[in-house]
Automatic annotation (TrEMBL):
Keywords (A to Z) from UniProt: Autophagy, Isopeptide bond, Membrane, Ubl conjugation
Main subcellular localisation: membrane
Protein name: ATG5 protein
Function according to Swiss-Prot or TrEMBL: May play an important role in the apoptotic process, possibly within the modified cytoskeleton. Its expression is a relatively late event in the apoptotic process, occurring downstream of caspase activity. Plays a crucial role in IFN-gamma-induced autophagic cell death by interacting with FADD.
The UniProt record lists the keyword Membrane: yes
Gene that produces this protein: Atg5
Domain of life, source organism: Eukaryota
Membrane topology term: Peripheral membrane protein
Autophagy protein ATG5 UblA domain residues: 11-104
Subunit structure: Forms a conjugate with ATG12. Part of the minor complex composed of 4 sets of ATG12-ATG5 and ATG16L1 (400 kDa); this complex interacts with ATG3 leading to disruption of ATG7 interaction and promotion of ATG8-like proteins lipidation. Forms an 800-kDa complex composed of ATG12-ATG5 and ATG16L2. The ATG12-ATG5 conjugate interacts with RAB33A; this interaction is bridged by ATG16L1 and promotes ATG12-ATG5-ATG16L1 complex recruitment to phagophores. Interacts with TECPR1; the interaction is direct and does not take place when ATG16L1 is associated with the ATG5-ATG12 conjugate.
Residues in Autophagy protein ATG5 alpha-helical bundle region domain copies: 119-174
The family this protein is said to belong to: Belongs to the ATG5 family.
């Protein structure tokens, strides 16, 4: 994997210019200005929720603020899908910036799972890593890691720190020299 470091770095630093706007039916005390961010493709919307919420709470009545959720052109965006995947599935053929609508009411119970804290997204992320390692290495790599390694992996992703993340993720991406490759190559298909 070290030969591919430039490619890994380019993928890591892939960004999607995004414009967050408050849904027109939300009750505000004053007009809410759009909020612009460059979102990392490899991250999750729940990791930028605090920034977006803070921006829009300035214009809203506090009693009107409940669980935040996002949608694109009427489709609720799933928090447990990476941002790049959400963009590719829903908006890859549109002009940038990607326009995401922010909601604080009427959570779509039938379409989205609740995500009450960053601990939930961390648990989801680590479960995905463990599933992939089970296929690639019979869970040997993840089981040999210490809790601090798991935390470093998550914190690297959460804080958008390439070196911090890849110092640990490298172990998951390599196979022992005595093996000719991975047992299986894990991948998911999203529709």
């Amino acid at each position: 994997m070290t030969d591919d470091k430039d490619v890994l770095r380019d993928v890591w630093f892939g960004r999607i210019p995004t414009c967050f706007t408050l849904y027109q039916d939300e009750i505000t005390e004053r007009e809410a200005e759009p909020y612009y961010l460059l979102l990392p493709r490899i991250s999750y919307l729940t990791l930028v929720t605090d920034k977006v919420k803070k921006h829009f709470q300035k214009a809203m009545k506090q009693e009107e603020v409940s669980e935040i959720w996002f949608e694109y052109e009427g489709t609720p965006l799933k928090w447990h899908y990476p941002i790049g995947l959400l963009f590719d599935l829903h908006a890859s053929n549109t002009a940038l910036p990607w326009s995401i609508t922010v909601h604080f009411k009427n959570f779509p119970e039938k379409d989205l799972l609740h995500c009450h804290s960053k601990d939930v997204i961390e648990a989801h992320f680590m479960a995905c890593i463990k599933e992939a390692d089970a296929l690639k290495h019979k869970s040997q790599v993840i089981n040999e890691m210490q809790k601090k390694d798991h935390k470093q992996l998550w914190m690297g992703l959460q804080n958008d720190k390439f070196e911090q993340f890849w110092a640990i993720n490298r172990k998951l991406m390599e196979y022992p020299p005595e093996d000719s490759g991975f047992r299986y190559i894990p991948f998911r298909i999203y529709q």
